Amino acid sequence: MKRINRLGYIAIAASALIASPALADPITLTAGDVGTSFTLDYNGFSDGKIVDGLGGSTTFTLKNVTDTGYSFDYSVANTTGNGVTSRISSFAFDTDPDIRSARSTGTYNFAVLDSKYPNGIGNIDVCFKGGRSNSCAGNSGGVETGLSGSGSLMLGFAEPVNALTLDNFFVRYQSITGAGNITSASGAATSSSSTSSGGGTQVPEPGTLVLFGFGLVGLAFAGRRRGRRNAAPSPRLALA
Question: What is the spatial distance between Cα 17 and Cα 20, in angstroms, rounded to a whole number?
């Protein structure tokens, strides 16, 4: 996974300065977090502009940890509304350390490593999708508006992993109706929460509001990409 100052790539649009939630913080997991779940909520955007009504969430539950592997149950909910319909065809994230292999079952039973994600996001470490293809666009399968899908996934690494950090969470919207001429879009996770294996209460993400122009939000996502392997890990949300 790559680590730089995420705000360093956010340009201020002087003509469209608005308040917007910060992107979801990285999440760090260890063997002691087996049984812990975390949920992320997503917006939707196309060509650097927010698409009103597009929404979704993903929930990941850490099920097992080995020296070189982390296994999760996942669920994806399509919360699109306000007269808009869509299909969430894939979800994706970055990993630290770098992922070596991935596989999945259930609704999103195809995994692709190091593939470009649409709408200017750039390469993403791993994505999971509902239809077979060589990219993360996910042109078929997935979850329709108002529905949810689930399954399991496994992440494999070349060397033993003491702690795994997940970051840069995205989803892909296809088959959009009710949003003008927009038929596809991507979504970025803007908040996250966790629930402990002991049934603890939900803990909101400690992010703050950041002022920036959504017209250039794609630059923020692209700026969180390559070139961070030599930086010391400093995740802002760690699951104890």
Answer: 9
Question: Within a domain: residue 236?
Answer: no
Q: Is the pTM of the predicted complex or chain greater than 0.90? A: no
Q: 92-114 burial, b for 16+ CB within 10 Å, e for fewer?
A: bbbbbbbbeebebebbbbbbbbe
Domain extent for 20: 6-231
- Number of structural domains in the chain: 1
Query: Tens-of-pLDDT digits for all 240 residues of the chain?
Result: 443 333 322 332 222 333 345 689 999 999 999 999 999 999 999 988 999 999 999 999 999 999 999 999 999 999 999 999 999 999 999 999 999 999 999 999 999 999 999 888 999 999 999 877 767 876 789 999 999 999 999 999 999 999 999 999 999 999 999 999 999 999 999 988 988 765 333 344 434 333 334 444 444 444 554 444 444 333 334 443
- In a domain? residue 240: no
